[in-house]
């Protein structure tokens, strides 16, 4: 059984094709750090995170956001085997980065807000529901190798 | 995380801008919640939950009125929302995790309708406001 129905895949891929992954990545990561300030704990070496403006214009935040969302984007190409697709990243986040998987869920929801912000009426309830499945699946896959 | 004076002002200003449309947005947030998180529907077996239903709109207006009341009582949410807390805890027995799901869908609705206002700082203020409302609603869980 597929993770997403054919219709849901269509909705997700249809919207994702229009996403500027690099920009949206920086915005989503920036907003995570602004809205949930405790997440800044993972980015002490990133320089000035002292205000919303500082965070959103921080070049390290943008670069890292780009990296994160490009991985997410690659994962979308393997939507029926997210656990396989994110196995190595899952081990990295557990063993080396020590990131609480709750943060993946938070980032997933911030990403959904950013997509709503960018796409307006196109980000209707059906599209949102499909994306909520995706971000939950990615978060779960990233947490899968934790031990 | 207490709301600062600037954050309170921002939330109040946005609420004024929403005007009489708060009900429309709360209804949309409910519809998004039911679609994205189907388990939330288990609390509404008595309602017609098809999108556009008059019953969902009526419930959306109730949610809107409660949120508007919350915005008017940012200094004392637990007292202002005590009756609602009691209702949700004792009678409806809603698992508090569901409040967060509706809160998230409300943020998504506002981001979609007010892109010019939904800056990172406003996003943070709204998230804080909603988490205070949720906390006040959960007061009766003891």
UniProtKB/TrEMBL annotation, chain A:
One GO biological process term: hydrogen peroxide catabolic process
Globin domain mapped to chain residues: 3-147
Keywords associated with the record: Heme, Iron, Metal-binding, Oxygen transport, Phosphoprotein, Transport
GO cellular component: blood microparticle; haptoglobin-hemoglobin complex; hemoglobin complex
GO molecular function: haptoglobin binding; heme binding; hemoglobin alpha binding; metal ion binding; organic acid binding; oxygen binding; oxygen carrier activity; peroxidase activity
One Pfam assignment: Globin
PROSITE patterns to which the protein is assigned, alphabetical: GLOBIN (PS01033)
Subunit structure as annotated in this protein's UniProt entry: Heterotetramer of two alpha chains and two beta chains.
Family that this chain belongs to: Belongs to the globin family.
Full protein name: Hemoglobin subunit beta-1
Automatic annotation (TrEMBL), chain B:
Pfam assignment, any one: Globin
GO biological process: one example: hydrogen peroxide catabolic process
Gene3D superfamilies: Globins
Keyword Phosphoprotein tagged: yes
GO cellular component labels: blood microparticle; haptoglobin-hemoglobin complex; hemoglobin complex
Matches recorded under PROSITE patterns: GLOBIN
GO terms assigned for molecular function: haptoglobin binding; heme binding; iron ion binding; organic acid binding; oxygen binding; oxygen carrier activity; peroxidase activity
Matches recorded under InterPro entries: Globin, Globin-like_sf, Globin/Proto, Hemoglobin_a-typ, Hemoglobin_oxygen_transport, Hemoglobin_pi
Highest taxon, organism lineage: Eukaryota
CDD domains per UniProt: Hb-alpha-like
All residue ranges annotated as the Globin domain in the record: 2-142
Alphabetized UniProt keyword annotations: Heme, Iron, Metal-binding, Oxygen transport, Phosphoprotein, Transport
Protein role: Hemopressin acts as an antagonist peptide of the cannabinoid receptor CNR1. Hemopressin-binding efficiently blocks cannabinoid receptor CNR1 and subsequent signaling.
Complexes and interactors: Heterotetramer of two alpha chains and two beta chains.
PANTHER family per the UniProt record, alphabetical: HEMOGLOBIN FAMILY MEMBER, HEMOGLOBIN SUBUNIT THETA-1
The family this protein is said to belong to: Belongs to the globin family.
Name this protein carries in UniProt: Hemoglobin subunit alpha
Gene designation per UniProt: HBQ1
